[in-house]
Write a structure and sequence with these properties.
Rossmann fold, P-loop_NTPase, ATP-binding, nucleotide-binding, binds adenosine-5'-triphosphate, four-stranded antiparallel β-sheet, six-stranded mixed β-sheet
Amino acid sequence: MTPVLSVSGVSRRFSTDVLKDVGLELSAGELVTLVGRSGSGKSALLALLAGFDQPDVGEVQIAGVPTETPPPWSTMAVLPQSFGLLDELTLEENVAAPMLFGGGPVADALARAGQLLARLGIGELKRRYPTEVSTGQRQRVALARAVAGRPKVLLADEPTAHLDHATVDLAVRLLLDFVGEGSACLVATHDPRLTARAHRRLRLVDGQLFEDQ
Ligand SMILES: Nc1ncnc2c1ncn2[C@@H]1O[C@H](COP(=O)(O)OP(=O)(O)OP(=O)(O)O)[C@@H](O)[C@H]1O
């Protein structure tokens, strides 16, 4: 089966060699974690995969097609460390946004948004605005939004950094259900509560990618 995301021979240099001959494949159904020391290149790799940056050499393919620009939201969602929520929209409108961009009915999008927020324990906050909730609550909204449009690939950067133990459990279950419906997810994380439940674990060391056994 064609991987949903594949990377071959990718290198990227800024003032030093940040990524060296990186290769990886993500298949539908996989939750894969990416660990590495601060500065090891995790965010740089996610930026290349998302099409926000281009490799000096090598290729990134989505569903077998080479990418040079960010793919549409329906194909790939990115959950950045900074969340990227829209302060003018309520929490449920933020979560519904990718579905509305996809042309779906408003009522259906808001209903799914409410369900996702409830699964993450903040259903009762859905009419609030991002500035009216805590950092951990905003992080949950960003996670709900990232899976809402059922993208083929989700790239997430430290998605549990502000969550307590019980909430991480809700987040991991949501991600496992998300990939179980046929998507793939790559998560850069330092969180052992997340890596422990991933299907595979990748590690960046000095710009090279290894798979933990
Ligand atoms: N756009 C850029 N221009 C110059 N240098 C960059 C750029 N992006 C990343 N780097 C450098 O590449 C290296 C890897 O950075 P990156 O942000 O990918 O690390 P990281 O593993 O995500 O770290 P952290 O866990 O602290 O977020 C760092 O030395 C960083 O300074």
